[in-house]
Amino acid sequence: MEKRKLDKETGDKVSFITFIIPRFAAEFRINTQEAYRYLKQYGGLEFLYKHWWALHTDNEYYTLLDIYDVCKENGGYLR
Questions:
Q1: What does pTM read for this prediction?
Q2: Per-residue pLDDT for the chain (79 aa), expressed as one digit of tens each?
Q3: What distance in Å separates the CA atoms of residue 45 and residue 48, rounded to the nearest whole number?
């Protein structure tokens, strides 16, 4: 079986998204699976995929707030 390497940008994107979802879960005291489902349902994942490059340069706190605001605008509510 041939191993395939991800290009740097794709690897960075995957690393950031797999970093931020558990952080989001911890911030809102839900488990990681619930966080993933919530983000998927309310547009947070799409926002992450589209804007990850800008979000990964921001402070983690503000990134989490931005993601939450997007979800809230799409009908999601936590806390």
A1: 0.85
A2: 676 777 888 889 999 999 999 999 999 999 999 999 999 999 999 999 999 999 999 999 999 999 999 999 999 988 6
A3: 5
